[in-house]
Amino acid sequence: PRPRAELAPGAVHVPDWLGFDEQRELVAACRGWPGYRHTTYPNGGVMSVKTVCLGWHWYPNGYSRTTDDGKPVLPFPDWLGDLGRRALADAYGEPADGYEPDTALVNFYAAKTKMGQHQDKDERSSAPVVSFSLGDTCVFRFGNTESRNKPYTDVELHSGDVFVFGGPSRYAYHGVPKTLSGTADPALGLTGRLNITLRVSGL
Ligand code: MD3
Ligand code: FE
């Protein structure tokens, strides 16, 4: 079994935190949220993952209460906030009652999709980010706060893993250099990888 690990202060990996039934329920929820799309950057770049946002609409330069296709912003469900508080409490070993995420970014990784090294700086809160992984295993690269280059640590994220990024790790560079296609349990019924991150927008 893979042990719980604190990669850096505030960066805690809890392998296999979600049970299989919970993973299936999360996959079903992710399927039900409409509007996955490739995010485009102000500079014209396009992300290879497809993303849907709950609670707010995310632009790579900020959050908005309106989408750019006129569709309403999807609600951030209470049960997802509850799940995030439980995950955060288990990762840090202390109550997380005051943690109130209001945004979720749901990323879908088709085969061979990657995400380059970046910092998450669009939120105006330094509250922790809670991440849930589903489906195919990926290589997650956890770096430093100074640059997207070394030093960094590569860790596999498997379906059901939770990762929390708070404290000094909240502004670390990170990315997904590889997804390992075909590693998902067929019984999960997901081809590819889903990642859900919970955030406090601070707005
Ligand atoms: C470390 N997502 O959506 S989750 C993202 O697997 C993002 O989809 C990746 O990076 C994914 O922005 C990585 C783990 C993660 C999420 C947010 C972080 C790590 C983080 C914020 C700060 C530091
Ligand atoms: Fe990120």
Your description of this structure?
It is a single chain. The protein is built from two helices and 14 strands. The chain has 203 residues and is mainly beta. A hairpin with a 2-residue loop joins strand 5 and strand 6. Residues 118, 120, 174 line the site of fe (iii) ion. N-(carboxycarbonyl)-S-(naphthalen-2-ylmethyl)-L-cysteine binds at residues 105, 107, 115, 120, 129, 131, 163, 165, 169-170, 172, 174, 176, 195, 197. This is Alpha-ketoglutarate-dependent dioxygenase AlkB (EC). Its cofactor is Fe(2+). Its EC number is 1.14.11.33.
| Sheet with the most strands: spatial strand order | 1-2-12-9-14-7-4-3
The SSE string, one letter per element, is EEHEEEEHEEEEEEEE
The main pleated sheet reads as:
8 strands, antiparallel
- Based on DSSP secondary structure assignment, what is the total number of beta strands? 14
**Mean pLDDT figure:** 97
Summarize the structure.
The protein is mainly beta and 203 residues long.
Key words describing this protein structure:
203 residues, mainly beta, 8-stranded antiparallel β-sheet, 4-stranded antiparallel β-sheet, 2 helices, 14 strands, 14% helix, 35% strand, binds N-(carboxycarbonyl)-S-(naphthalen-2-ylmethyl)-L-cysteine, binds fe (iii) ion, ferrous iron binding
How do the helices and strands line up, and which of them pair or pack?
Blueprint: E1 5-8, E2 11-14, H1 20-32, E3 37-40, E4 46-54, E5 57-59, E6 62-64, H2 78-92, E7 103-109, E8 115-118, E9 129-135, E10 138-142, E11 153-157, E12 162-165, E13 174-179, E14 193-199
Antiparallel strand pairs: 1-2, 2-12, 3-4, 4-7, 5-6, 7-14, 8-13, 9-12, 9-14, 10-11, 10-13
The chain binds N-(carboxycarbonyl)-S-(naphthalen-2-ylmethyl)-L-cysteine and fe (iii) ion.
Residues 118, 120, 174 line the site of fe (iii) ion.
